[in-house]
From TrEMBL:
Compartments, as annotated in UniProt: Cell membrane; Membrane
Protein name: Na(+) H(+) antiporter subunit A
Highest taxon above the source species: Bacteria
Transmembrane intervals: 76-95, 107-125, 131-148, 160-186, 206-228, 268-288, 295-314, 320-344, 365-388, 410-434, 455-481, 501-525, 569-591, 603-620, 627-646, 652-671, 691-711, 748-767, 820-839, 845-864, 876-901, 921-943
Lineage: Bacteria, Bacillati, Actinomycetota, Actinomycetes, Micrococcales
Keyword entries, A-Z: Antiport, Cell membrane, Ion transport, Membrane, Transmembrane, Transmembrane helix, Transport
InterPro entries per record: CPA3_Na-H_Antiporter_A (IPR050616), MnhB (IPR007182), MrpA_C/MbhD (IPR025383), MrpA_C/MbhE (IPR046806), ND/Mrp_TM (IPR001750), Proton_antipo_N (IPR001516)
Positions of the NADH-Ubiquinone oxidoreductase (complex I) chain 5 N-terminal domain: 65-110
Residue ranges constituting the MrpA C-terminal/MbhD domain according to the UniProt record: 612-675
Record GO cellular component, one term: plasma membrane
One Pfam entry name: MbhD
Length: 977
């Protein structure tokens, strides 16, 4: 099963690429993949149908520490649904090969999504864990959204896709809450354990009804039925598969799965019977007034889903058997009928039954296939639909009037509703055949070339043949379906009911004849029925209510956005900080873990540093220029560096200092594009309120620190880190070993955040397209520029080219002292960064600190020579550094898997090397190298974005000049100097 699921997933990824070469024929490849799943399921039949307890189970361990596994189980119910999902899926994909034009550019995407949906449904029905079931459940909603909205240029398709997605996804989220409660109550997320333990109580009852919300939304049960008719905007193959055979069966499947264990939960039967009967009757009644054949079948599907919910949820052995039979029968006849509609639509160009006439003579084969499928839907012998309906009637009759006399009024109500709904089913089945194939007087004849292609009829013919064959072979079907009912409790009766075409003359047969006769009567009196429907029309439409609700939500959202998203950063900060103060302050009020002994400082030096930091913070609020404000804010950061250093944390001190320097430089680069002075109104409004918020945040944070220090009751895990660093990480620097070994997963996540931040900064600055190459200064052109400058220098003064891009600068902006310092120190700083990288495992340093030092070296080159100098210093793209860093880190994380170890496992090597002596290498250093490259890439990206790109935009994208000469080919830089 795991292999089948993996093959379906892989095939769905490869199909779009195959479509580039195969066109529409790619559907045949996709059909073969689904057929493979069908054959695999058939091969498992002996093991599945032998015993309920010995069903094939496969388990793939995912995260053992969290007890997360991929558990798949193929029991009789899963076997039935899997055959439907893969078998009908293969036929529908085969049908798509003739339905779509071979040159349609969207066939690859459509085939891939449809095959992915087959895989999601397969995973859903074989899932043996509630969380895996939920993941697959939501996957079907996502794929159905893509399939319904296949015609992206049509507003109706997009709206219908969104309607289906929201309805089923919201229902699924409600269901998740119920599943979590059931898993907690049972002490396991395993479905068999939950069904075996059968937890009870008010909380379990609540959980069951939450699960039913998801099931009923997926199966389009009233009042959540409106999305299914709207989904008819999808291509017809989507309707034939998702909305007849697969997706809408998911809710019925879940009800049938839970019914044996939870059918006696208070309100279960009453709710399902009431909603199911209402859905069956309302859907059938609506189908009788449809003029679009596809909508007629859609409302008929809603009706049939109500029928399925009624019988699936009752929870006895006979009703479970009947539900399994009806599930199979419905999948066969309804998917086949949708395929027939697709043939009519493609060949005749319309689905309006008022415009169709004479198709019975022009498409006799199609008409014959449709007649068989409609007869099965109406429950006419000898079709399998008749066998399933007889089983339903028998199951409800036994429940309503059992041998012991303890009848159930709910079963009686269900029986009455089923008879009424089945009568409507016969009526709209006749309406479909009459509307599609009857020659109607007064209707313009269709074109002479309207004929059905034989290739399009294959899939529907197979489904019709199966419906016809399973009727006389009902005993064979019973062998495959009886295990579905094995877990449901049996009611007292004289014999064990079995599926059969003929059970003799009885009340079930009488009710079947009554429904057929009543349906024929309604069809013959269709004019009167139409008038009655017109008089009873209320104008209330569930779909309109949905769209009015969504419009209201949009209006409320717009209003809230208008009030809150006003473009004011002070307002946003005030809201965030106020919520923090109120929420956290309320929690502090009710806490009782206050410290009994508070030590305000360790040394007087800490008090002095703290006073400086407080003074700088206050000065920042009084600054009138942006640069001054930036400097005093930086003082608080360097104050933290001093606090860390005095606290015995050199790694933190080094990192804090480097981060503060890089941050200050980044701010300076940004400030070049802003006015020097702060706005006249800065800080002049709501001074008292701002002061109160600021002071409150500081007080709350101080209290949080105090409470946190007193709340610890267990020995902190960090106390063992020095020993773990030696034993596990083979390093003396606890901080660095923790980053690259003990908690390397956290660092991996932080690397991803760093890359996202770099990409975000760049996306804000690069206006038309991001190029990863900085300008280079060709050597020959540089020499010519130097000679020209010397020749033009009237005063005879000469400035040496200490750096490569020096001659490109305006003499007024050059600093020879800065160029000399950068020239002499750049390589030494790079070497220092590498030393910090490799020494960090045992001494202060590491990949993060080393990367920041290397980044500062690049900053110095940019400050001295601008963007041309940065291009010369970094002859590679920032994206390459970022990508290489995360690739190295990921490779280090995954490499242990290839030798049978866990992810992120590190080891070390010791040896003696000539000249170097005894050497020890820890493999986590490889991870640190990845960190180093990511940090360097981030700094380079910031310099390119906030520095070089801002320079370029400042000149309007034009080449900058040499020495103020606009005709010169090279550009001087506005690098921050």
């Amino acid at each position: 099963m795991i292999v089948v699921l993996a093959v379906l997933a892989l095939a769905s990824v490869l199909v779009p690429f195959l479509a580039r070469y195969m066109g529409g024929r790619v559907f045949f490849v996709a059909s073969a993949v689904a057929l493979g799943g069908f054959i695999h399921t058939l091969a498992l039949s002996p093991a599945v149908l032998t015993s309920v307890a010995d069903a094939p189970v496969e388990r793939l361990s995912w995260i053992p520490q969290l007890q997360l596994t991929l558990d798949l189980r193929m029991d009789a119910l899963s076997w039935l649904l899997t055959l439907i999902v893969t078998g009908i899926g293969a036929l529908v994909l085969l049908y798509c090969g003739t339905y779509f034009r071979p040159t349609d550019p969207t066939v690859g995407r459509f085939a891939a999504v449809l095959l992915a949906f087959v895989g999601a449904m397969y995973g859903l029905v074989v899932a043996d864990d509630v969380y895996l079931l939920f993941v697959m459940w939501e996957a079907t909603s996502v794929f159905s959204y893509l399939l319904i909205g296949h015609y992206t240029n049509r507003r109706a398709s997009r709206g219908a896709a969104l309607e289906a997605l929201i309805t089923t996804t919201v229902g699924g989220l409600v269901m998740l809450v119920g599943l979590v409660i059931l898993a907690v109550q049972a002490g396991s997320s395993s479905i068999p354990v939950i069904l075996t333990e059968t937890p009870s109580g008010a909380l379990t009852t609540t959980a069951i009804f939450l699960v039913l919300v998801g099931a009923l939304s997926k199966s389009a049960i009233v009042p959540l039925h409106f999305w299914l008719p709207g989904a008819m905007a999808a291509p017809t193959p989507v309707s034939a598969y998702l909305h007849a055979a697969a997706m809408v069966k998911a809710g019925v499947f879940l009800v049938l799965r839970l019914a044996p264990a939870f059918a006696d939960v208070p309100g279960w039967r009453l709710a399902l019977v009431a909603l199911g009967v209402a859905t069956m009757v309302l859907g059938g009644w609506a189908a009788l007034r449809q003029t679009d054949l596809k909508l007629l079948l859609a409302y008929g599907t809603v009706s049939q889903l109500g029928f399925l919910v009624v019988i699936s949820g009752y929870g006895t052995r006979d009703t479970a058997l009947a539900a399994a039979a009806l599930l199979l029968a419905h999948a066969l006849f309804k998917s086949g009928l949708f395929l027939i509609v697709g043939i009519i639509d493609v060949e005749a160009g319309t689905r309006d039954l008022r415009a169709l006439t004479g198709l019975g003579r022009r498409m006799p084969v199609v008409a014959g296939i449709a007649a068989l499928l409609l007869a099965s839907m109406a429950g006419v012998p000898p079709l399998f639909g008749f066998v399933a309906k007889e089983a339903v009637l028998h199951g409800l009759l036994v429940a309503a009037a059992p041998a012991d006399g303890a009848g159930d009024p709910v079963a009686l109500a269900a029986l009455i509703g089923v008879v009424l709904g089945s009568t409507l089913t016969v009526a709209y089945a006749l309406r479909f055949f009459w509307g599609a194939f009857r020659t109607k007087p007064g209707v313009m004849a269709l074109a002479d070339d309207v004929r059905a292609r034989p290739s399009m009829t294959v899939a529907s013919a197979v489904l019709a043949t199966a419906s016809l064959a399973l009727g006389p072979l009902a005993a064979l079907a019973h062998r495959g379906l009886r295990e579905v009912a094995a877990l449901a409790p049996a009611r007292p009766r004289a014999y064990e009911y079995e599926l059969a075409l003929w059970h003799g003359v009885g009340l079930e047969l009488g009710l079947s004849i009554l429904t057929i006769a009543g349906g024929i009567g309604m069809f013959l009196a269709r004019t009167r029925v139409e008038r009655l429907q017109a008089r009873l029309a209320t104008g209330v439409d569930a779909s309109d209510a949905y769209w009015r609700t969504m419009s209201g939500v949009d209006r409320i959202a717009n209003r809230v956005t208008t009030l809150t998203q006003r473009g004011s950063l002070p307002f946003y900060l005030a809201v965030i900080l106020s919520v923090f103060v109120l929420g956290t302050g309320a929690a502090l009020v009710f806490t009782d873990t206050w410290p009994t002994d508070v030590r305000l400082w360790d040394t007087p030096a800490q008090v002095a540093v703290g006073a400086v930091m407080i003074g700088a913070a206050i000065a920042a609020t009084r600054a009138e220029k942006r640069f001054a404000a930036l400097i005093v804010v930086g003082v608080t950061g360097f104050g933290m560096t001093a606090i860390f250093a005095m606290g015995g944390a050199p790694d933190l001190a080094i990192t804090q200092a480097l981060v503060e320097i890089v941050t200050l430089i980044a701010f300076v680069l940004v400030l070049r594009r802003l006015p020097a002075r702060l706005g006249d109104r800065h800080g002049s409004t709501h001074k008292l309120l701002r002061a109160i918020i600021g002071i409150s945040v500081g007080v709350v944070m101080a209290l949080v620190a105090l409470v946190a220090s007193a709340s610890r009751t267990a020995e902190p895990i960090s106390a063992a880190w020095p020993a773990l660093s030696r034993v596990i990480g083979h390093g003396a620097n606890v901080v660095n070993v923790a980053l690259v070994d003990l908690r390397a997963w956290d660092t991996m996540g932080e690397l991803a955040v760093v890359i996202a931040a770099a990409t975000g900064v760049a996306s804000l600055l690069f206006l038309r397209g991001r190029t990863d190459s900085l300008p280079r200064v060709p050597r020959a052109e540089l020499e010519r520029t130097v000679r020209d400058r010397l020749a033009r220098d009237a005063r005879g003064s000469q400035r040496s080219a200490w750096i490569l891009a020096g001659p490109t600068l305006d003499p007024r902006n050059r600093s020879i002292l800065l160029e000399v310092v950068v020239r002499l120190t750049f390589h030494a700083v790079i070497v220092l960064s590498l030393y910090l990288l490799f020494a960090g495992h045992n001494l202060p340093g590491g990949g993060f600190a080393g990367g920041l030092v290397a980044g500062l070296a690049l900053v110095a080159r940019y400050l001295a020579g601008g963007r041309y100098e940065l291009g010369a210093a970094a002859p590679f793209s920032a994206g390459a550094l970022l990508g290489s860093g995360i690739l190295i880190a990921t490779g280090y994380a995954l490499a242990p898997l290839f030798v049978g170890a866990e992810v992120m496992t590190s080891t070390y090597f010791e040896g003696h090397l000539w000249l170097l002596g005894d050497v020890e290498f820890v493999t986590s250093t490889i991870f640190d190298i990845g960190v180093y490259l990511v940090v360097v890439g981030l700094v380079l990206d910031v310099l390119r974005s906030l520095g070089a790109e801002v320079d370029r935009q400042g000149r309007g994208g034009q080449a900058l000049t040499v020495g103020g000469d606009a005709s010169a080919p090279l550009g001087a830089s506005e690098g921050a100097r």
